[in-house]
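Model the whole thing, not chain by chain.
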Amino acid sequence: MGPAEARSRFRAGVRVPTAGWAPGYAQANMIVVPREYAYETLLFGQRNPKPCPIIDVTEPGSPYTALAEGADLRTDLPAYRVWRDGELVDEPDEITRYWSDDLVAFLIGCSFTFETPMLAAGIEVRHISRGSNVSMYRTNRQCRPAGRLSGPLVVSMRPIAADRVADAVRISGQFPSVHGAPVHIGEPEALGITDLSAPDFGDPVEIRDGEVPVFWACGVTPQAAIMTSRPPFAITHAPGYMFISDVPDHTYAV
Amino acid sequence: MGPAEARSRFRAGVRVPTAGWAPGYAQANMIVVPREYAYETLLFGQRNPKPCPIIDVTEPGSPYTALAEGADLRTDLPAYRVWRDGELVDEPDEITRYWSDDLVAFLIGCSFTFETPMLAAGIEVRHISRGSNVSMYRTNRQCRPAGRLSGPLVVSMRPIAADRVADAVRISGQFPSVHGAPVHIGEPEALGITDLSAPDFGDPVEIRDGEVPVFWACGVTPQAAIMTSRPPFAITHAPGYMFISDVPDHTYAV
């Protein structure tokens, strides 16, 4: 299934995590803010490029992106989150009724982009094998603030066989603009993560003997900044329920 | 000579192109705009990352950068350009009298960053050998606009021996956040450059038999956008007279 077909299913109401969908095409996190917060959001991305690699910014009021012709950011993601003063107030399937001419959408690279080349190299990606959402955790590391926006680094975690961790580093490191190499390998306590079986976002996955938890910077980080910084209004994708673009993964490889 | 010593000489009035100075430390282009233009400037960088890789943004009114402790962006570059309504009105050694609480400075990666590893690989960098400024040209390629900002791509050119062009691509490609691999190799006419001996910025350099002109995206591109878009006020570095940071070149290598 290609990206346009996937988007049309989500537009029709299919609500599933997108890992493994439209393989070979880049997926993206989304954060939508009032124009008055656009500079600080863009600057937060510039100052925290590992968790927040911004790959497109819409014109104010426009739901269209250069990453997929004809896509509508108000309807083409499988699930959204709506935030008021930092509180989650709705998790709708589409956001047309929340849209206004004052909103700017930021699309942020997603680590799902390098899962296809990891699978091609024979590295198991457990949440894809299990058909579940990736595990994500808030950490004790703070992002560099930008004006009124601050918050902790969020990471995604994949259990990787110890003899394939170096390959996972090498492969993901070829995609620096979509989170790139891991930020942390093993030792979750050092990130302030006390229980891997209770992720802050997404689903838990089994970690087997001989496997190491590997942590990548995650595009859910701006949602944690919203929860911390409490802007009056924001919309995001639901974690793991991404925008699927028309851009081939290899576009982001170096 | 280290970067702090170089900056102190420039602060004392030394006015020279910085290629080859403080080898091993990243140099940066600078553009300073009123706060009201900050979002469009940052967005112009996001939309044109090859010529405008933004590596730091100051707080409004602050002349200090995270890239070099104690450096003062108002005095520590060897030469500046001051622009009003898109016209060059001054080329001072320091800009203290032009500074105000309303200004935001953007530092942009510079291709001088990968000249040190090119030299280490035995590739001659002619403008360093000759002690002159690098050759820079406006091209017929347009950048992706951002609000009121638009303009042509500017490139720097280095003549490279035909049997070392691939090495120059490989080495510069390891630095994607400071312009990265060339945008064009040979065939200057296809970029709209009719006379390599008459660069739009910097000095001409000899191209010898067996050498190919190789073009990299250049951080002078925002200056061309100022000339095209005519914001009421801006300050930039003088082309080739860069800010020298305390950040080692290898920080930007992947």
